[in-house]
Amino acid sequence: MSATEDTEALTALCARLARIPTATLSSQLIKRGLKATYIGGARRLIGTDAICGPAFTVRFIPGREDRTVPESYAWPGALPAAMDAAPPGSVVVIDANGHRGAGTFGDIFAGRLKVRQVRGIVCDGAARDLPGLERVGLPVWADGTCAPPSIGGLTFAGWGDPIGCGGAAVYPGDIIVADRDGALVVPVAVAGEIAAPAEEQDRFETWVQARVEEGRPLVGLYPADAGTLAEYRNHQEAR
Amino acid sequence: MSATEDTEALTALCARLARIPTATLSSQLIKRGLKATYIGGARRLIGTDAICGPAFTVRFIPGREDRTVPESYAWPGALPAAMDAAPPGSVVVIDANGHRGAGTFGDIFAGRLKVRQVRGIVCDGAARDLPGLERVGLPVWADGTCAPPSIGGLTFAGWGDPIGCGGAAVYPGDIIVADRDGALVVPVAVAGEIAAPAEEQDRFETWVQARVEEGRPLVGLYPADAGTLAEYRNHQEAR
Amino acid sequence: MSATEDTEALTALCARLARIPTATLSSQLIKRGLKATYIGGARRLIGTDAICGPAFTVRFIPGREDRTVPESYAWPGALPAAMDAAPPGSVVVIDANGHRGAGTFGDIFAGRLKVRQVRGIVCDGAARDLPGLERVGLPVWADGTCAPPSIGGLTFAGWGDPIGCGGAAVYPGDIIVADRDGALVVPVAVAGEIAAPAEEQDRFETWVQARVEEGRPLVGLYPADAGTLAEYRNHQEAR
Amino acid sequence: MSATEDTEALTALCARLARIPTATLSSQLIKRGLKATYIGGARRLIGTDAICGPAFTVRFIPGREDRTVPESYAWPGALPAAMDAAPPGSVVVIDANGHRGAGTFGDIFAGRLKVRQVRGIVCDGAARDLPGLERVGLPVWADGTCAPPSIGGLTFAGWGDPIGCGGAAVYPGDIIVADRDGALVVPVAVAGEIAAPAEEQDRFETWVQARVEEGRPLVGLYPADAGTLAEYRNHQEAR
Amino acid sequence: MSATEDTEALTALCARLARIPTATLSSQLIKRGLKATYIGGARRLIGTDAICGPAFTVRFIPGREDRTVPESYAWPGALPAAMDAAPPGSVVVIDANGHRGAGTFGDIFAGRLKVRQVRGIVCDGAARDLPGLERVGLPVWADGTCAPPSIGGLTFAGWGDPIGCGGAAVYPGDIIVADRDGALVVPVAVAGEIAAPAEEQDRFETWVQARVEEGRPLVGLYPADAGTLAEYRNHQEAR
Amino acid sequence: MSATEDTEALTALCARLARIPTATLSSQLIKRGLKATYIGGARRLIGTDAICGPAFTVRFIPGREDRTVPESYAWPGALPAAMDAAPPGSVVVIDANGHRGAGTFGDIFAGRLKVRQVRGIVCDGAARDLPGLERVGLPVWADGTCAPPSIGGLTFAGWGDPIGCGGAAVYPGDIIVADRDGALVVPVAVAGEIAAPAEEQDRFETWVQARVEEGRPLVGLYPADAGTLAEYRNHQEAR
User: Domain limits at F88?
Assistant: First the structure.
């Protein structure tokens, strides 16, 4: 397959995954033994739709006074260069060391990422300048907002590395899906194989929900026993 | 008193307590020496009205890989059986060990509980599938949302036991009241005796608030000294 | 300068600072070596506008059963006296020891502070009686809500002392600014000198944001290199 | 097999496991997919030897003032009854909710357990009366010591239930092994099958350590590549 | 009573309380409704004997860069003045905000306190210069050691105020008792009345421990039922 | 200066710094504005002397099930390769994400590092196999011990990167000093300049301590006022 075809396939896959709830995707990952894939602390602050794209990782370490000086933002390879390097279609995932009192991005960085057609930002720490972020409108998942910039407590340590974010390992290129329940890491090796079963799970659970509303008990229905499965298959075939 | 009368009395008491703010009820419990009755972390995610009902307890312990397998949901006496067993009028209280990255319930379980006329769910951990929970509409108090299901980090351990929830002990049958300030445990032995003084406290505080708005200082007014109490009694008698 | 002139100057300064985002003010403080000035945990619960005023400090310590009795509210110099003593134009800053399960104020105390023309309340713990607080309408920043009153877990320890609040030191008279990003302590000694550079920073960042939207990379733009600075100055002069 | 034979087999297995480091046993559990088996926080306070035995579980929930009264120790089925019920050869595992300021046992309870030939106590909270515990000499793993008794913050909730302890699930009868590295839960279903491979791992690692001391690099040695494995097998056969 | 007699009575009381385990004293406080009296985190670092004396309180708040400058130690009324003011026979109790990375005292301050005949130091944060502290030999309870001085993260805020220390309220003059189980606050109002019952409790528990060693079950023995109490009284009278 | 001379100078500097308490070095760093240099959580587990050497950094991120498989230790560039790469004279500093339930090294890795003449290991998480580590004898600072290996909760992410460790930023080549008070990062740029003033501070503090023991108050003595400084200089000259 050519590189262009690869990219198109990835774009199509991401569009498909973005339509599946992270709750469903997480269940599919767990069926494959992958439990530690949820990014804790990152809740939706900006945006209304789910997003999906490959991770572009940014890493911070604790601040140290010889590095957390205002001029550090202008050092070669500093945080602005990372923002400029984020590729279109990606999701920027920021390891802020879980720091809630130092904002790793605000409206200007978010504005730049939006211009670069980044799909959104996921961060286990704080965002800053919430009104400005709302004006920009780039989707954001973070653990609240704060006033101080990143040098208020963190040192930028680079981009494109494996990181920890909210208790989950994130490797560059892992597929990130984020919706109202939060943000999930889908290792790229399984991203392709879970789309179809996840969609099927969603169809099945819609059917289950209708049965629940009719007053059916959960035992035997969900998870489905053999009788329920047969009933569901009949229903599917009848459609 | 017959069992039916008992049930009717309890239903009436719960309806009465649901109209009293948890802030007021907590003050009344503290007057009786009961401080450790607030369920920390559980904030309102779904619903607009206060709820009140006897606790139906559900308990989780930390997940272990030989138990947190997808098929465990179908084991006899597993979580679906607990949901089926929740009695009408009760409040389901879930001890999720404070785990914020494993959702102990989503829209299907909430849908089942709604059909069973449960009044709401209170949980010291996370809910999942927030859009689905909103469609169902059953009132929910929880410590945020996440994507993974319970087996992402927890093992179901049974129902109907005394539990800890958000730092409070909850015994089956304790009265749970939940509103915008959060969720409160009212031990059943005192539930009956605090309704009247709590209602009176609310009336008094409404009168105090009016005095405050007139510019009266707090000292002597709230708490009330003898003069203020006399003034309040006169006001009450004059009504 | 006379005391009246002093007060008027402070009032004017506070009005000016209230129009500057805390994100910008924090950057200016950090330029002056002041990083530990953000009040962690206090997020906006009530209000829509930013506030600014000198701090009136209130201090709590952990509760102890011989002090956390309902009658303690009526002891001489207790919490109601503190509320009565808060001066007009001030911001009441409460060191609640970070306790999220004991509400240090509710609608009656907030109502009293509103009558006293206090600008708002900032607390690193919980508020209580959220519907009542909304009726009063005094701006509030706190770490959530709860049902229990302060004696549910805290002992009032006095007012007018230096305190810690959300990890920041707050001295009486420090300038507090609070907006959607949270609450910031501006030591009074630097409050005057940062207003102008902060306003200039805001103008510059508005210009930067426009350049970002035109597609300009961040490197060289933000922070600005010599060429960007010259371009900005030309733009400013051309206005 | 008769019940007596069962008991003897279990006793022999426990004696065997007690001679294997928990570090080695944990590696064997992880090879079988069992990671969440380490009891966090419980470090050795009393004793010098490793212990191993089936778990006898004791459960606490947060304290509530109507239950945490001194007379509660005399209620039927209270904590003293649990201590009296602990079987010889067992390890008492206490879920103290991780509370470090309420001691769930002291010298008298430990003395009773010693008389009952319990092998030791493992607790994710605090012990109390350290000098008394040293006099008794029963091995103890706990997260420090404190002065208050359990009713200082906890309510006894029963024994013989599945519990969480230090982040691990513990079921009655699970095999507990504790040594200087801490305490480990070995699910009974795998306890028998890991003894032999764990012993072999220990032998292999002793051989590896000798190679390391000779200056051999780790890559290829540990984990062993094919050449190293052959060398080790030759060495074993030559003995 | 004269002031001298008062002081002598207090000294005698402290000597008496120092001989009673904090575990026993805590039980007596709980019988009087006082649970929140244990200083969490402060474990014995230096010393071998228990200490008891009235609290001399020292308070820190979070560090802020305009205050945490090396020269601040020389400001009037700074930390050295607090050390000079600690009275003979007192226990210095330091509210370090639970900060474990900023040492509020080292060997020089401890040396000064020893010269002043202070009985010991209790701190909910870190000590520093452990070898120096050992040379000085003044008893110390703290939550570990660290290298940085207090200005590495804290600001001194004064002495002689009510403080929180390890989750307990401490008022100047409260009686502090510290032993191997940790440090306990005995409110001065009850200090006198608990000595005798605590001593009696110790005698009773010594007798209980002997019965336990003879193999007696705990139920009925501890807590004692009527028969056990009679037996104990006979035993006491027979001595 | 030649590379050999550089190395010899560094070795000599490290030997010199190892003789200065970290408490003193931290004070010198703070005088130069460097506060965030203490590695929290890492306390001495093995060894009796202080160590000093340039940092060799090792980084872990949260574990993920597709990476935390036993065979991962044999992947190219995995943890054993990092151990083999640690240079003689260095201090291995491990960012274990603060995880206390997954041991990043045990006796075999420590044995290899000892053979490589590494000076010691500093880790913000747990060590494992404490008896084995004692046999090896390489100095270790860590936040306790545990049974599980690193793959029990962590994924190895590489070596030679800037890391966070116990809340401090550590860059490869930073000078690490560790003693009984814990472990300190000395940025290489200031390592040379602080040795002499730190030694002088130690001499001065020894003189101060003698004055304290003579009964001198701290105010005026420590920090020294002009008179004290003159007295100290006289004393120094008289030696």
Answer: 36-186
